[in-house]
Design goal:
Elements lengths: L2 E3 L5 E3 L3 H18 L5 H20 L3 H8 L7 H8 E6 L12 E8 L2 E8 L5 H6 L7 H16 L4 E7 L6 H5 L2 H14 L4 E10 H8 L3 E5 L3 E3 L3 H9 L5 H7 L4 H7 L4 E3 L10 H19 L4 H13 L7
Parallel strand pairs: 5-6, 6-7, 7-8, 7-9, 8-10
Antiparallel strand pairs: 1-2, 3-4, 4-5
Helix pairs in contact: 1-2, 4-13, 6-8, 8-9, 10-11
Family: Belongs to the AccA family.
GO cellular component, one term: acetyl-CoA carboxylase complex
Organism: Rhodopseudomonas pseudopalustris
């Protein structure tokens, strides 16, 4: 994904070039207006044109364009949702077997006054934090930490919230040596065995087993322009055509958008994003997500452990049957 840069605090995706040009013109006119020129009507006219162009673009995004939006570097990340929605958050570290994995954040806090366990992949928002969090790609110890926290939450009757945003589990040699596949499988199983309600929200990328390891939930919500897939478009392109440049073609064929996944029953709800994507109004997106999470948990309140497990099991057994 390449970005067309304007001013430091604003970035545009390739397909947003028409909007970028209009915004650049608006900035120029505002500079003239600040020097005393009476061009407010012209500024307003171009602002309306830019807003219309943005609305039209985002009303008809292709799967590949949605992939670019889901990966936008200014999109709100896991830590932003935790900061905006969770009070008294106390992060816990380590899997008690090997070490700490900062790609996967986990801890306990309060969501709208109620205790909650939070798990989420954090990609980072600067060079330093991206390296610190390994771009959101967890190693085995990250998933073993998730299992530890889920078991603790279950023991104390605390519901679990997962914030999913990863390109996939880390594929390095060390991760494989320490049992990456086994760790993902055990984390997925821990989700299924929870006797407390769990809700997952795909806030950006939902990449393969790295995502489903914490997203096997009673309710799976997904942002409007997020993606959720068994493999990245780039990897699928390399495998199917032995050509990594056909990622766009792969994305358009893989049914990775929220709209497709709702139709197949993979997810339960799509959360509308602000015009132009979540990165254009993070506070509004976080507030919308908070309301949806509260509503999802409200549907599960009062259910006993057996019912919670059965409902979750039935949900995954029914995936794909809606079109059958």
């Amino acid at each position: 994904m390449s970005l067309v840069m304007s001013e430091p605090m604003r970035s545009y995706l390739d397909f947003e070039k028409p909007v970028a040009e209009l915004d650049s013109k608006i900035d120029e006119l505002r500079t003239l207006a600040a020097s005393g020129s009476d061009i407010h009507e012209e500024v307003s006219r171009i602002e309306e044109k830019a807003a219309q162009a943005l609305n039209e673009l985002y009303a008809a995004l292709t799967p590949w364009q949605k992939t670019q939006v889901a990966r936008h570097p200014q999109r709100p990340h896991c830590v932003d949702y935790i900061q905006g929605l969770i009070t008294e958050f106390t992060p816990l570290a380590g899997d008690r077997k090997f070490g700490e994995d900062e790609a996967l954040i986990g801890g306990f806090g309060r969501f709208r006054g109620e205790s909650i366990c939070v798990l989420g992949q954090e990609k980072g928002s600067s060079t330093e934090t991206r390296l610190k969090h390994n771009f959101g790609m967890a190693r085995p110890e990250g998933y073993r930490k998730a299992v530890r926290l889920m078991e603790m939450a279950d023991r104390f009757g605390i519901p679990v919230l997962s914030l999913v945003d990863t390109a996939g589990a880390y594929p390095g040699i060390g991760a494989e040596e320490r049992g990456q596949a086994e760790a993902i499988a055990r984390s997925t199983d821990a989700c299924l065995q929870l006797g407390v309600p769990n809700v997952a929200v795909v806030i950006g990328e939902g990449g393969s087993g790295g995502a489903i390891a914490i997203a096997t939930a009673n309710k799976v919500l997904m942002l409007e322009h997020a993606i959720y897939s068994v493999i990245s478009p780039e990897a699928a392109s390399s495998i199917l055509w032995r050509d990594g440049t056909k990622a766009q073609e792969a994305a358009n064929s893989m049914k990775i958008t929220a709209q497709d996944l709702l139709r197949f029953g993979v997810i339960d709800q799509i959360l509308a994003e602000p015009k132009g994507g979540a990165h254009r109004d993070p506070e509004a997106m976080i507030a919308t997500t908070g309301d949806a999470i509260a509503a999802a948990f409200a549907e599960l309140n009062g259910l006993d452990s057996s019912t919670v497990r059965n409902k979750r099991r039935q949900k995954f057994l029914e995936i794909g049957r809606k079109l059958g």
